[in-house]
Amino acid sequence: ATIIETRNIQKTYRMGVEEVQALKSINITINRGEYVAFMGPSGSGKSTLMNIIGCLDTPTAGTYTLNQKLVSDMSENELAEVRNKEIGFVFQTFNLLPRASCLENVALPLIYAGYGKAERSEKAFLALKSVGLEDRVHHKPNELSGGQRQRVAIARALVNDPSIILADEPTGNLDSKTSYDIMDLFHELHQKGNTIIMVTHEDDIAHYAHRVIRLRDGLVESDNVNPSPTTGK
Ligand code: ADP
Ligand code: ADP
To answer: What tens digit of pLDDT does each residue of 2-18 get?
Structure first.
């Protein structure tokens, strides 16, 4: 089943009298359960497209359908609601709250979702357990390694049971051994049926994905199935 469909998506940024056409016409269809890597040189439009797919921004023209909802025409409030329900974000810099425990960090999206405290703690604990951090729930982020911090961020992305996991350079701040550990975890999540979309600059990281889409100058340059993706341990 189709989960993401973009039709002739364009994005133009205006800065005074100047215009930058960051996306010229993007047509992409992604099915539930796919594992996709976006690649492309700096300035090719990856962040712009990820922001649109993640419902953080809307296109200037064209349509974007996420899980059968037409999101390209939505208001800020409607977008925020779809985002909180449908998307789990993972960032290069982890974006954890430094003063909050792992459990509190992971439970955060559940506050937006309206769950009570007991249920939040229970769900957050299970999410941390699913990434192998059940013995770190009361630690603060600065008491953890980079790889562990990214696991906390992944648990936070998963806690709401989102339709898609959007990962922007998830291994960008990790050494290579830790990067492969995180990719092993992504592999596991994909095996469990999660839909994963990540941006990466690194070929060996992109090679874990089952499909690689390359952008150039605001257009899809290539869109290829990876015949033999790297698998986890
Ligand atoms: P990538 O993520 O592949 O590096 P971006 O989506 O960040 O590419 O950028 C695509 C183009 O849009 C670039 O020319 C960039 O300078 C421009 N751009 C991105 N964001 C903005 C913005 N907020 N305002 C103006 N121009 C932008
Ligand atoms: P709102 O105020 O509409 O609830 P928030 O800023 O609290 O929006 O964020 C809602 C969701 O969007 C959260 O899951 C958060 O992780 C994500 N989010 C917020 N800002 C960004 C950003 N700049 N890039 C990616 N994800 C973001």
So the answer is: 999 999 999 999 989 99
Of all ligands present, the nearest one to the C-alpha of 96 is 2
Q: Which of 59, 39, 51, 96 is nearest to 214 (CA)?
A: 39
- What ipTM is given for this predicted complex? 0.71
What Å distances lie between residue 130 and 124, 156, 170, CA to CA?
10, 11, 18
Q: How far is the CA of 46 from the centre of ligand 1 (A)?
A: 8
Residue 93, CA atoms < 13 Å, CB-side half-sphere: 3
18: three-class secondary structure by DSSP: strand
Q: Which residue has the tokens 């990856």?
A: 46
Helix 102-112 / helix 146-158 crossing angle, nearest 10 deg: 20
For a ligand 2 pocket test, name from 76, 79, 89, 152 the mutation site with the most ligand atoms within 8 angstroms of its C-beta: 89
